[in-house]
Amino acid sequence: xxxxxxxxRHHHDFDGERDAKKLHKACKGMGTDEKVxxxxxxxxxxxxxxxxxxxFKAMYGKDLPxxxxxxxxxNFEKTALALLDQPWEYDARELRKAMxxxxxxxxxxxxxxxxxxxxxxxxxKDAYKRMFDKDLESDVKSDTSGALRKILxxxxxxxxxxxxxxxxxxxxxDAKNLYEAGEGRWGTDELAxxxxxxxxxxxxxxxxFDAYKxxxxxxxxxxxxxxxxxxxEKAYLTLVRCARDCQxxxxxxxxxxxxxxxxxxxxxIRILVTRAEIDLQTIKEKFQQMYNKSLTDSIRxxxxxxxxxxxxxxxx
Length: 316
Known about the structure:
mainly alpha, 0% strand
């Protein structure tokens, strides 16, 4: 799906034991050396951070996340702990948090489940089961309803075609089905949308959206907006935008999390942590193109203290 670049790669001169020692020293005695914590966590890949955790446990008999919990606070702590999870464990934790207790944070379910590829979804389901001894699909089923439940369960099947081939006939047929399921009739038949949006490969979906435009004179996003509303609209639009340009989708999420009064720090943390090793460099470039300002500068002006320093470090 084109070239996209991470901001964090494997650290070449890596030594897990040395890093564990550095972190132990940073947390020992009076005061905490936040600079060392920021430097270490933001310059190691997720796999390397797992090795540091293992070394730390073996050398000091303590869990590094627990030690950091006692030393750090607020959003800085949240980000540091998120970086100590494997990406799929962190996603599982965020999904659990979105569904636990009273009320459900549907936008988190949508942002995670509608943007991950098959392999990631399967890893998240495994992690969820292992960490919480619960079944992710059952939890989503009981915490959502109606058309949103249907699309999320379709996505959770992780049955998207992984190829890059485009079948023009299928694109024409899917476009016709989408039209007939949506604008072409009273009420929207979600099944056709779920089938197409959750199962076709991204290149195929782009061809389908082009075919839809030729057939109806309307962009698929306009059609979704006029046919659906609320969380279902959000889920369909997320799937469409991710198929078109996933990095632009995340750039928009970041922009929205910082515009207007107040900042949605949870979204900032989630996107920077989960995309750093995938495509964060490309998301930065998209952000600059789309909003004519730097993502790093925007984050600098919206956050403060060690939290700001850690996020900025993840962007380089």
